[in-house]
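User: what does the whole thing look like in 3D?
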Amino acid sequence: MSIVVKDLSYVYSQGTPYAQTALENVGIEIREGEYLAVVGKTGSGKSTFIQHLNALIKLQSGEIRVFDIDLTAKKPDLRRLRGTVGMVMQYPEYQLFDETVEKDVAFGPKNLALPEEEIRARVKEAIELVGLKYDEVKDRSPFELSGGQKRRVAIAGVIAMKPRVLVLDEPTAGLDPLGKREILALIRRLKETTSPTVVIVSHDMEAVAEHCDRMAVFSGGKILKVAPPREVFYDEALMREAEMDAPSVVKVAKALISRGVSFHNLPVKKEELVKELVERRGR
Amino acid sequence: MNNIVFGQYYPSSSIVHRLDARVKLLLAIAYIITIFFVEDYVVYAGMFLFVLAVALIARIPLKILFRTVRTIVVLILITAVINLFFTKGETLWWSWKFIKIYREGVERAIKLALRLILLMLFPSLLTLTTTPMELTDAIESLLSPLKLIKVPVHAIALIMSIALRMIPILVEETNKIMLAQKARGASFDTGGALKKAKAMIPVLVPLFVGAFRRADELALAMDARCYSSVQKRTKYKVMKLHLRDAVAAVVCLAVFSVAFLNKYLFPFDEMILSLFA
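Assistant: Here's the predicted 3D structure for the full assembly of 560 residues, as structure tokens:
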């Protein structure tokens, strides 16, 4: 287990008229090496939940363990935690600040107090990993890059800390279809190279169906279900309660089922649907 | 970041909240003028009770009201200390080398501190019970006579309301950026003053860039909808005076005049104090 969360509850503005329960008795175990999607409609507690994983929010009640770091401890080792769990926030390009791309990406590793050469090597590696040419961009101002490039630089800034768990909050928000596909491919690549465990918050069910191993479905500050996409998208009651929209593959499959077609394995990915249909024709 | 209380609305449906913002604003100004003329402890106490009564009617928890005073504690202390040491008087109470403290100095320090606290309380009630939008509308309405001498009152009010509207957005943005930089290992509360100031650069740069981006976007959006401050504009919410506004004005002005008259006509406080003597 990489991250274990037990009985996590959180109330915003506790003790004021604005008090609002964001999380209620949330429990989940995030496995090492899995690609987990955190889904749910706006205000269901997703963002609050993932911010806890990095101790960006102070624990009110409940328990969190990240590998061997216990966040219930009085003074958890935050520096080590932040080097372990890399957090890419929503619209990460808005947090770029330094004069050059190189310096900006180096911000995280520098805060980890790594030796100079190590930082330089990591920065170079991270910039190349996100698909930019190190020699071309390293001395440019991050503010003169294009939107997509900025987002890549911001992600590189997190990758350079070499986190074992990569958490991304809506990494494809505001991108065009091509940009979305590129970022999703980038996340895949990062999962295979630097950060084997990935947690992604997403509204994009197509992407979730295509990439994720499991889904954690949030609604009203609670986790309704943690299961592989196949068990979530075909669970009608759950989908209705969480007010989620199924990806198009699932919609097509459901329409076919209602017309009497039966499947060996319920499909959630495009290839699975195609394979099932081709097999039927062969018979 | 969450303790910017001055200018933070405390929602409720009390009668004080529903009063016309213009009346509340004018009464707050009258209150401030009154406080500047008051110099007696008993009247200070009276004004304090009056403020408490208004807070009670407005259903504002006293804890929240007094939190506003906390923001000027340093100012109060500095003023009090300066007055304590630099006021020359007749009765010397204490001296050490060149430092001399007179009875008059002590009295003045206490009075100034009380005055500053009182000065903070009532205007805080105004901002706690009135939304920033209502306030700017009130200011625009009260300044409208200046239109006759070609003062761009509407533009000023618009700038004010946009600025007010932007404060919570920028606070939220600051929080977001701070979280993002914290996630990258930044820490904002360790080290000396210089180190702390330096640690703010990764927050301030994106904040400024974001503020300019927002301003550009807002200007474009307003242009796209043919906004112009030159034409005569109508209001969605027209401000109207009610009976309750008149009652509030009469009650407040009565209290303020007593505080005033006390000084010039008949000194109550001496009468009251003499009862205990």
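In plain terms: The first strand of chain A starts at residue 3 and ends at 12. DSSP finds twelve helices and ten strands in chain A.
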